[in-house]
Amino acid sequence: MAPPAPPPSRVFAELDLAPAAAPAGHVGPPALPGREVHVSGSAELSARPDRARVSLRLGSRKEAAVAARSSVVSRRLQYIAHSARLRGVPEENMTVTEDFSRVENTYQMEAEVCIVFSDFGKMQNVCNLLIEKLGTSITINPPHFYHTPEAIDTLRRQVCVTAVGNTRRKAQEVCRLFGQALGKPLLIKEEETKEWGGHIDSHLSHSADSQTLQERIQNATAYASCRVFAVFEIKGKENRRNKLL
């Protein structure tokens, strides 16, 4: 999905160098607090999916019920689970669903194994091994890439923090242009956030079977943008020594 159109142009910064009015009865020069710089800043970040779900299907049809079960459960299912565990896949990341039925004069045993991977390299190694060892007796569906809620939350925090950092740097540049020193923040306000692309955890994949692995990862990449508004205090004249540094 294409990123949203950039926001309309807006004021880079607003600098108020006028000192605040002295309170009634105050004697002497006006206090420096009250001089402010108002700045808006933005950021855009992306996050690749952190999980992949792979569905493996296998089946057997035999005249005897015991033979149908044994062909699928006792041999191939155990081999799949053993191969995944050897490559570091936790037991809780594997789900097995079995369906046993009678078809005409035979017994049919079908099973589906869903494996969730957090390491995409391990995913490829496991799938390649199973195709090599089990051949046409197993069907491996293309992986479905998605984000955990924790990954999306991390992206939201990072893009906000980055936008605040960009805003502060803008304020510093504006103050430096006028020979002023930037003070503490007086206000930081998140004005707008946007998110697009990416997939949250879902059993449904809308990707075409012809897509490559990298195309699937790219299509599942999540994007987020954030715009913030901030007001900073102006401390006074910039220290010449710091300016040289």
Can you walk me through this structure?
Helix content is 32%, strand content 37%. The chain has 245 residues and is of the alpha+beta class. The protein folds into 2 domains: 92 residues, Translation Initiation Factor IF3 (2-Layer Sandwich); 96 residues, 2-Layer Sandwich (Alpha-Beta Plaits). The strands form 2 sheets. Strands 3, 4, 5, 6 and 7 form a 5-stranded antiparallel sheet that branches. A 4-stranded antiparallel sheet has the order 1-2-9-8. Helix 1 runs antiparallel to helix 2. The radius of gyration is 30 Å and the shape is rod-shaped. About 8% of the residues have low confidence. Its main location: cytoplasm.
**Portion of residues within helices:** 25-40%
The CATH class of the largest domain is: Alpha Beta
* CATH architecture heading of the largest domain: 2-Layer Sandwich
What is the N-to-C order of secondary-structure elements (H for helix, E for strand)? EEEHEEHEEHEHEH
| CATH fold group of the largest domain | Alpha-Beta Plaits
Q: How many beta-strand elements? A: 9
- The tally of structural domains comes to 2
Could you name the CATH homologous superfamily of the largest domain? RRM (RNA recognition motif) domain
Low-confidence stretches: 5-11, 25-32, 203-207
Largest sheet: 5 strands, antiparallel
The span between the termini is 44 Å
Number of helices: 5
